Amino acid sequence: MIKMLTKYEHILGKKGFAHLATIMADGSPQTTPVWFDVENGFIRINSAIDRLKDRNLKAQPVVALSIQDPDNPYSYVAIRGKVEERTTEGADEHIDLLAKKYLGMDKYPYRTSEEIRVIYRIKPLKVSGMD
User: Fold this and answer.
1) Distances in Å between the alpha carbon of 106 and those of 2, 87, 91, 96, 97?
2) Local structure of residue 17 (DSSP, 8 states)
């Protein structure tokens, strides 16, 4: 997995958004721009329990992601994979880490008291792109 992503480290390390595609209950696709990071060859995203992407990923844990290089719109990486793990453990700290990456803030400023954060670890199964 790590080897598959190595070619695209120059994109994955930047502040580009990942466009996450999931499958709705009726079989239609749904996309959402999301913050992400990479850890040990897995793509990690963060959401709140019971949001649409959470419901979709629980029902069908397959995804597609496209991440465009923010410095070169003709360079991108496309990843197809599956959710290997869904956990609330460490999810609050993870969203703060992503807030640091994307907003330059130590704490995620949009947290609400009623939400429970969740991390999805996505195993890349197919990686392609354009440099």
Assistant:
1) 28, 22, 14, 6, 7
2) P
Per the structure, the count of domains in the chain is: 1
CATH number at residue 37: 2.30.110.10
Per the structure, the complete domain to which residue 121 belongs is given by 2-130
Whole-model pTM above 0.90? yes
Cβ-contact 39, 22 below 8 angstroms:
no
Query: Mind listing the pLDDT tens digit for each residue in 71-92?
Result: 999 999 999 999 999 999 999 9
pLDDT digits (tens, 9 = 90+) for 49-72: 999 999 999 999 999 999 999 999
6's tokens: 């190595």
Cα-flanking dihedrals φ and ψ of residue 97, to 5°? -60, -45
**Nearest in space to 79 (alpha carbons), one of 32, 26, 125:** 125
- The answer to whether 28 touches 80, Cβ cutoff 8 Å, is no
